[in-house]
Design goal:
Radius of gyration: 18 Å
Shape: globular
Strand order of the largest sheet: 3-2-1-4-5-6-7
Order of helices and strands: EHEHEHEHEHEHHE
Strand content: 5-15%
Structural class: alpha/beta
Number of helices: 7
Length: 255
């Protein structure tokens, strides 16, 4: 991790939950964290917790113009970005058959299109400086094993499947262009976050059996800390004792 000290990382959805935990952990290693979120007041609170290595920037990642402005600012102030953590995501429990077009588009825009645009800009920043970089996409086990989830999750699962495919495509392009950039997709099982609170209430999931946001943050550090020749393309993180089914906990019926 010594290599990344003094480098610049962007973390989306940095004001709470997993994004906040990742931002805290990165800052501990001397990484300059640019935390993005839509609500500045929560980002300011995050900054007060993390300290001088965290810079809050208000950005709606579904707006390409705001993303471009953000990258321009980072280039002017820091020279460019070295790490991108695509963490921000939303879930809409409305069934696809009941969803309006704007509801479908909102999930896809946030969970897939925005990470693609952010990755594009990050890769171009790294390429411009011939810099070593790392893109980390935070997905989830529904993006790998949606068949095992018996609760309708709308477009969340399809968008997360797409995020995995995005990582594969980026690695193809990086290899062809001979860039020094790694891409990792991290797929956690159930995590104690507000995002899935409605699902946990429905399933009666005991929170003590779930991952914590800090578990995901520590995984990010582990992935970044690999040697120069090692690239972890994909990693699944489960609560200990989950068993062979990475989506449905053993204390739930699997039907």
């Amino acid at each position: 991790m010594n290599y990344w000290s003094g480098k610049v990382a962007i973390v989306t959805g940095a004001s709470a939950g997993i994004g906040l935990a990742i931002s805290k952990e990165l800052a501990k290693y001397g990484i300059n964290v640019i935390g993005l979120a839509r609500k500045m007041d929560k980002l300011v609170d995050a900054a007060s917790m993390i300290g001088q290595n965290f810079l809050p920037l208000q950005c709606d990642i579904t707006d390409e113009e705001e993303i471009l402005i953000t990258f321009k600012f980072i280039e002017e102030q820091f020279g460019g970005v070295d790490i991108l953590v695509n963490n921000a995501g939303i879930i809409n429990f409305r069934r696809v058959m009941e969803s309006e077009a704007d509801e479908i588009q909102n999930v896809i825009n946030t969970n897939l299109i925005a990470p693609a645009i952010l990755a594009r800009e990050a890769m171009n920043s790294m390429k411009k400086r011939d810099a070593r970089g790392h893109i980390i996409n935070i997905s989830g086990t529904p993006g790998l094993y949606l068949e095992a989830v018996s609760v309708p999750m709308g477009m969340y699962g399809p968008s997360k499947y797409g995020l995995k495919a995005l990582g594969i495509e980026l690695r193809h392009e990086i290899a062809q262009a001979k860039l020094n950039i790694k891409v990792t997709t991290i797929s956690p099982g159930y995590v104690q976050t507000d995002l899935l609170e409605e699902l946990y209430d429905f399933l009666k999931v005991p929170l003590d059996n779930l991952l914590k946001d800090t578990d995901v943050a520590e995984t990010v550090i582990s992935v970044l800390g690999t040697s120069k020749m090692v690239e972890i393309s994909e990693i699944v993180v489960l609560p200990q004792g989950m068993g062979s089914n990475p989506v449905v906990p053993p204390f739930l019926p699997a039907d």
